[in-house]
């Protein structure tokens, strides 16, 4: 009974923390801005709170160079931001997240992935940026999903177990490597989709430091993977391309 109770708590914390684009992060609280007065960048929020789609500038007005557009919000509470993304780069577009004007590269290529636990402070300006350089030849498009804000690192999980377990890469076609450097006995790995639906379970009771895990039977998308040991649990995000 203890095993079941622990797992229910783990999943409960994951989904209660997964506010997505709602509350303080409702699309109404975000602002779209750009370096070109002629930009035709836009954000489709019809999929909110689950997803938004950010379309970069492709006005072909002749502006140049170093152009970019940002979709940003003021952080209400100190904590951590996580999200998944699917970025299409038809030309020389680049995708960033930005904190107080300082950009960090998410990807320079067409790519699907996830970013976890970006530390932010109340009052920070947090946003997404699509860099276009010029304003032609195809727009960058970023689909952002699984957006979450948490006031504690790792969604109430055991930070020790999280640091001991590596599941990589975070995004591929379904074959993942798992390594474990801890001393507690691992018990199982459970996969759920974002609605909380149980998908798959892998027995880890005879786990020996490293293991290849095959998820090629899963459909493309973002999944939450909960790994349980005899003393704790941790939850990680995986993207199947």
Would you give an account of this structure?
It is a single chain. The protein is mainly β and 241 residues long. The chain has two domains: 132 residues, Galactose-binding domain-like (Jelly Rolls), CATH 2.60.120; 84 residues, Sandwich (Immunoglobulin-like), CATH 2.60.40.1930. Helix content is 9%, strand content 49%. It has two helices and 18 strands. The strands form four sheets. The chain has a five-stranded antiparallel sheet with strand order 1-4-9-6-7, with no helix packed on it. It has a five-stranded antiparallel sheet with strand order 2-3-10-5-8, with no helix packed on it. A five-stranded mixed sheet has the order 12-18-17-14-15. β6 and β7 form a beta hairpin. The chain is elongated, with a radius of gyration of 19 Å. The N terminus is likely disordered.
Provide the descriptors you would attach to this structure in a database record.
single chain, 241 residues, mainly beta, Jelly Rolls, Immunoglobulin-like, 2 domains, five-stranded antiparallel β-sheet, 2 helices, 49% strand, elongated
